[in-house]
Amino acid sequence: MQQSATTFIAGLLLCLAATATAATGLPVTVINSDNNKPVAGAVVWAGNPQAVAPVSAEIYQKDRAFHPRILVVPVGSSVDFPNRDNTQHHVYSFSPAKTFNIKLYAGRPEAPIIFDKPGIVELGCNIHDQMQGFVVVTDTPAVGRTNDAGQVTLDLKPQPGERRAVLKIWHPRLPDTTRPVIREVDASQPVTIALDVEPEPATDGSLDLLQQRFREL
């Protein structure tokens, strides 16, 4: 009888441990504050920095567009910018998180760009105004992008007794695309965050303002 009781308690403890581990996943839903519709493609990450290994990635140019248009990488990552078009490109950014300038080129640049600071990096091409891209550089492994239902689950690892968490949320249709929206939330339950996002553009849009800023440098 004593052995059965011991076995039962051990099994119960294992179940509780598994439940606690599963509870570190924080469900987040992002909606449009104007109409409560889900916002797909929002990048959501934890605001408390944690060590994360850098990666190697690429954003290639094809059909006079960046692919992918939005890249999420850990801080310290290297990103290559191969040109797969039959025309030259001039890729640049003057964002505080990373300023660089790859002058007119075809093929593959001599070296990748190292994104050594967290933040939002806006990309442009000084030859083709319509080209726009973003690199979201994060300093935590707890990061994800919302699906078509506006939902993502973050793998948070809170300290014992800690319930509050700071989240950063970014979307390419925010009024200010240079910085994320910051929200403090209760990490012990699912979270819904309302964002002020602009309507989808009728076309791919233009980088007239970005171009003007580049030419004024």
UniProtKB/TrEMBL annotation:
Signal peptide: 1-22
Gene source species: Marinobacter subterrani
Alphabetized SUPFAM superfamilies for the sequence: Cupredoxins
Source organism, top-level taxon: Bacteria
Keyword check for Signal: yes
Matches recorded under CDD domains: MauL (cd04221)
InterPro entries listed in its UniProt record: Cupredoxin, MauL
UniProt keyword list: Signal
Name the record gives this protein: Plastocyanin
